[in-house]
Write a structure and sequence with these properties.
2 copies of one chain form a homodimer. By secondary structure, chain A is α+β, with helices and mostly antiparallel strands. Chain A is built from 6 helices and 5 strands. In chain A, the strands form 2 sheets. A 3-stranded antiparallel β-sheet of chain A has the order 3-5-4. A two-stranded antiparallel ribbon of chain A has the order 1-2. In chain A, helix 2 crosses helix 5 (about 95-110). The radius of gyration of chain A is 20 Å and the shape is globular. The N and C termini of chain A lie far apart (about 60 Å). Chains A and B meet through strand 1, helix 1, helix 2, helix 5 and helix 6 of A and strand 1, helix 1, helix 2, helix 5 and helix 6 of B. The structure holds a DNA duplex (20 and 20 nucleotides).
DNA sequence: CAGCATCCAATTAGATACTG
DNA sequence: CAGTATCTAATTGGATGCTG
């Protein structure tokens, strides 16, 4: 069992409560890079460099940080091959695989609804620009 | 159609590309407060104060900011009743409802797998503490 | 009640240089 | 190749005071 401050959580978890540990887990998952890393690993193990190239715009530092957090929380495994040059493989664990599809669904939604969102955004911005000053 | 810098996106969206607008949308969704707000609105419209009480730990500023972003992107609607004192209702739009279940799945996963994650975390931290210094 | 404005602290993220 | 370490810039977030 996992513990936090000596307490155990069997059920009744509620991410709406700030003190509930599920809030921390939600915070790990509710992250752009986590979503993309896990999605990439859904297709099988990848090396550090492969991930970096796949996740356009991520810096080496952020990738390292994201991977460490995911490893620490048991969503991915890290395998080091003591070769020269070194080779490190990252792979989703069983636990990780169980969440990948959920995260992927969110990413796919984003890709599918781009135009709905951009339309709404344009309309909102245009309305805001045309509106009289709230009060002057 | 939504546009960004005069470009239109019909298909082939890819959140793995930094310049793809779906990356921005993913960033909006991949957020702790977005997840919780949308989840709360899945049960029907709520007032500002109701949301604030429901989302334990959120500040007024963050709630306002989150709600504005969601409204701008068309996921929620905002209805002002010009009464005294004022009353403002927030409700998921059709577009918003279409993503709520996906986000809820992520939150529920967090709540269900607390112990798996905490176990992994404990094991990782213990291993790290026991490990010899990487190199001194 | 439902905010907005402001100031400040803390966290996050990028750039750069270096290593087994 | 796969990082670590460090410094700095930018963003986020919290606290407080005020308003229609």
């Amino acid at each position: 069992m996992g513990t936090i401050d000596g307490l155990r959580f069997y059920g009744g978890a509620d991410a709406y409560l700030a003190a509930c540990p599920s809030r921390q887990i939600l915070d790990l998952l509710a992250n752009k890079w986590t979503m993309l890393v896990m999605g990439a690993l859904g297709g099988g193990p990848l090396r550090f460099g492969e991930l970096r190239r796949r996740l356009d715009g991520i810096t080496q530092k952020m990738l390292t940080q994201t991977l460490r957090n995911l490893e620490r929380d048991g969503l991915i495994s890290r395998t080091v091959y003591p070769t020269i040059p070194p080779r490190v493989d990252y792979a989703a664990t069983d636990l990780g695989h169980s969440v990948i599809e959920l995260l992927k669904a969110v990413r796919v939604w984003s890709e599918k609804h781009i135009n709905d969102v951009l339309d709404a955004r344009d309309a909102y911005d245009e309305r805001a620009a045309r509106e009289p000053q709230p009060l002057a």
